[in-house]
Amino acid sequence: MRDPAGFLLCSLLLVAPHCTEVATQDVQPDPKTPCANWMGGAPGYPGHNGLPGRDGKDGKDGQKGEKGEEGVQGPKGDQGEIGVPGREGPRGFPGYPGQKGEKGEGAFVYRSAFSVGLTERAPHPNVPIRFSKIFYNEQNHYDASTGKFLCSIPGMYYFAYHLTVYLTDVKVSLYKKDKAVIFTYDQFQKNNVDQASGSVLLHLSSGDEVWLQVYGEGDNNGVYADNINDSTFMGFLLYPDLDVH
């Protein structure tokens, strides 16, 4: 009986070439491995990462994108510092006048005025002429019963008279405190009507009186008035003294 070990060795030697040939036809082994696939070793471990490469050149700008939607408004920022004043601008056109304001309080207006006329022929000389036709005498500073103006507000006054002259000559004078201040004379022309007038500025103190009267002796009271001719006497305050309260 033959040796069993020898028989097995011979069988392997006969089969090996055939298997090698078949394996060569099916899969070519990696030339880097010394043995066939069925005899290859275990896979190796992955190698370490290499160093980063250098930055490449900048590319060209792309096309402009579409406008995005408006974002939410942010919170109000802090108030900035006051800037330097700018140059003065050109002057504008005048505005329209405003409405008239209301009358102020506490302002007192001093008033004193009169305007009167004659209703009858003048009296005899050296007597005040009583002008009883009242045109204006709101403050009642003129007394029609005496023909005299009584000063109640110290200050500067203006007085004037315009007299119709008829039938005889006229000589009149304006008096202040029993003293003649101005004189007027008109010589009557027959068959005619004349005019005599005069005016004066006087400073009066409180209590002073002013009036008109015929002066001189003889027939010199030709002051006249009727329904178509007037003889008038007037006066008014220009301005009061500064110390009047």
From TrEMBL:
Gene (UniProt): Adipoq
SMART domains xrefs: C1Q
Keywords: Collagen, Hydroxylation, Secreted, Signal
Region span, Disordered: 25-102
High-level lineage: Eukaryota, Metazoa, Chordata, Craniata, Vertebrata
Protein's name according to its UniProt entry: ADIPO protein
Compositionally biased region (Basic and acidic residues): 54-70
Organism this protein belongs to: Calonectris borealis (Cory's shearwater)
Gene Ontology cellular-component terms listed: collagen trimer; extracellular region
PANTHER family in the record: ADIPONECTIN, EMILIN ELASTIN MICROFIBRIL INTERFACE-LOCATED PROTEIN ELASTIN MICROFIBRIL INTERFACER
Protein's UniProt keywords contain Signal: yes
Signal sequence region: 1-24
Primary site of residence: secreted
All residue ranges annotated as the C1q domain in the record: 107-244
Protein location: Secreted
